[in-house]
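User:
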Amino acid sequence: MGVVADTVLGLGGEVVGVIPQALFDREVGHPGLTELYVTSSMHERKAKMAELSDGFVALPGGVGTLEEIFEAWTWAQLGFHAKPCGLLDVDGFYGSLAAHLDHAASEGFIRSAHRGMLMVESDAETLLDRFEAYVPPTVEKWIGEGET
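Assistant: Predicted structure:
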């Protein structure tokens, strides 16, 4: 995250960070951000990020990255927000995950309308264009005849 923040700042952009106090106390926080919110917990951090954001993009990352994008996607599926969610598939990083999600949808574990809510693109501009055009699906009834 620090490399991305430094690059954006170096190009004259603005970077807003949200970090829980426990991580900030360990000197993990970036000192040069445009704006930095320090929260009391990870739960408060995610709620603040959701409040501040227009959408959610996961760059290649680990367990925390996956947890956060899946939670944002789940919130969208539940109708808690109508913001786009996506994976930036740098060098095929998310290809296997996207294939697994497609498989889960084909097996009936994820509705196709909900699967489509998590966009996957290898090109950032294409992903942002899709975000701009995003309209959340309307799913009237989640479980119907023949569905589980």
